[in-house]
Amino acid sequence: MVAIPTARDLLDQGLVTCPDTLAEVHEGLSGSGGRNSMRYIEVRMYGGLHFRLLPDRGLDVSSAWYGCIPLAWHSRVGETPPLPVPRDDDWLKAFGGGLVVTCGMQNVGASSEGHGVHGGFSHQVVRELRWQRELRGSDLEIEISGVISEIDALGVQLRCQRRITTRTGTAEILIRDTVTNLGAQSTPAPWLYHVNLGAPLWSGDALLQIPSQVRLPRDDVSASASSNWSAPMLDAPDCSEMVLEHVLDEETPGRARIENPGLGVELTVEWDRSTLPRLHQWIHRAKSIGALAIEPANCSVLGRGADRSAGRMPVLAPGEERSTSLSVTVAPIDAG
Fold this sequence. Notes:
mainly beta, Beta-galactosidase, Chain A, domain 5, eight-stranded antiparallel β-sheet, six-stranded antiparallel β-sheet, 5% helix, 42% strand
């Protein structure tokens, strides 16, 4: 196998004189600049990924490409501006998909206790947005960071410091979040990463690998997926979504992998189970949708009221902080 020159090789030898050639960050505005426009950040890495971040939607990851292969699932809603105060099922009306959509900070899953589906995180505008590029070892590394807040003057005061890093030579996105309760009262703080995957990656002979021994369906409809959750399947146009919770042994690391031999690639999602101990899987097999989501979380997807009743509500005390991490990595399938 021929060795590919590293970013440092190319820079030190003077073959590349501008770092933008190897690790490019481009900031722009979608649309024509009107009320439906949003900021975006495009990142392109030599030997790595090409992906798009949305600073006006919680700095979540929208499109992502590995070479010529798109990775993310997108709905027909597309990229839309944030809703001022998402309530009830409003979240779904603005759910365009994308590689990573963050759910929280005050609710995850069904609308509950006055909070809409999946909370308001992905409708928050990032503050203190900045990016930097540094040569670390043999690779150029880009870090993009910002602050996402859900704050009431006299009530809940939650702040998330988000850092997203990627490097040349490695097709990986690493998201690290630290959520802090700045308020004087303990507050519920559920959290879930909605990692959305679709065709062509999730199609054909693709196979999902999750080392779970038990899978718990969210409802009666979801029970039908308990025995055939690991392969892409298309069903009737009007079939319903299904959700399973995968129960992992305590010592099992947080890892899920999709292999697609037809494309010759595998995608791995990894997370820190010390702060994200639960794993959900969203499946929608309607022929017009065909979606899969891998969802590491610290809570259920039934809403904060259900977690409260079950005695499993994630809570942050005054001044307490919680750090979570999620990585998405793509690589060629090892033929050996």
